[in-house]
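Forum: Protein Structure Q&A
Topic: Joint prediction for protein chains with partners

I've read a bunch of threads here and the consensus seems to be that you should model interacting components together rather than docking separate models afterwards. I'd like to see that in practice. Below is the full input, 486 residues plus whatever partners are listed. Could one of the regulars post the assembled result?
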Amino acid sequence: MNENIIEIKGLKKKFPGVQALKGIDLKIPAGMITGIVGPNGSGKSTMLKIISGLIVKDSGQIEINRKNKEQHLMQDIAFLPEINHLYKWMTIAEMIKFHEEQYSNFSAAKAEELLKFMNLKLEQKINNLSKGMAARLKLVLVLSRSTEVVILDEPLAGIDPASRERILETLIGEFDSENQTIILATHEIIEAERYLDHVIFIENGELLLSANADDLRAEKGKSIRELIGEVFE
Amino acid sequence: MKSLISLIKKEVRQLNILIIVSTLIIAAWEWFLITRTENWPQGLSFGLGFIPLFFLPLIMLFLAYNSYRSEWGANTIYLLKILPRRGYEINFAKVFPAFAYYLILSGALILVNLYFHQGFLEQAFRQAPEMLGREVFSEFLLLAYLSYLITGIQIYLITQFSYLVATFFNRFRLLISILVFILSHYLILRIGGFLNYLFNWLPDFPLSIFTETPAGVSETTIYIGSAPFMVIAVIMIGLFFLNSRLLASDVDV
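Posted by a regular:
Agreed with the consensus. Here's the joint model:
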């Protein structure tokens, strides 16, 4: 694996009336858990959606493992969006089968194992799942794939504390730092901070800071949470 | 292939209710007409039996508009767009079940109508000049059915295109869809006119016409150009790939 799994140069995106990304240059290190933090509307989700192919960039370049984004099929990236994007008329078993048929790197056995840990049952209908349960299911589906990059957009948003802890435990438990990189955009920095190896601060579509989390803590003598409070005040 | 079949199966399941309800309504209508054959004037129930054919293109329009609107509405467009599938595979999975539904239901409706009104048709053929037989009737029926199928697929693809173009805008999406839908038809007519010259070398479909005059029955051969059929096929294939490209690479979610 290369030193940097993702390299972004001059990434710009404009939505009607707002410049969401103003030419971001960024390197995301491989084999680490990178946290992207910033206030609402800072451009975190937009950047992750562009990396995942959900949004078209206006200009700039994205390289994933030294390949242009355009050369990548979504087989190599597992993306978990903030919203519930699953077919509500399906059962969990049907959704797992659908993923197994769509992704060659999806393991149904691993999914079933994770489901047990997450207290979910195969026969449950997605429509009947609570927000926390749906978030856990989305994570199961993402973590059941062997991909180089796992992108999680607010996986803890609106989830009860017990589910949050379970989600983070699972995430760390399944993380394979030899072959994987996790990029996590979150507001829930209190819970997530201890797991982050690298942090990126974004505000108003601009990169404020990109640094190793331990180095940053040592240099500033503060936790990431406190630094965020200072930077975004 | 397995992934494509899985996508198609998902689409069929999403269409389940519409397929069942529309099939039941059409079946009930046909059954009602069949029971009326004895009581109503000859040919009336036969003619009325084709009425659902006018509604099927409207159902295609609805299916096409809803094909991606439902995905956007339920946020499942995220799931579709992050699949490791090409745009044309995702779009094919949408188009194929809808077209199969249109083909099977319209074909079945015509066959049922012909089967249950054989007596009426026999009588009609007997009254017509001897040479104006089943063969000519079949040729006309086949060409008309081919045009009907093209109309259905054309409506579907243009509606889908209109919706995808509207997703580039944040407001007035329905209005934009309608405008694009109307303009697309106009453009297809204009572009089709030019493309027609490219396919003029294709042999035309010969069709014999029999005219009854006091002097007897005279036979004339008319030719239906095959170029327009080819042009519309080319435009539809182009539109299919354009829709696929818009979905995969151009629209934001």
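Chain A touches chain B through 25 residues (CB under 8 Å).
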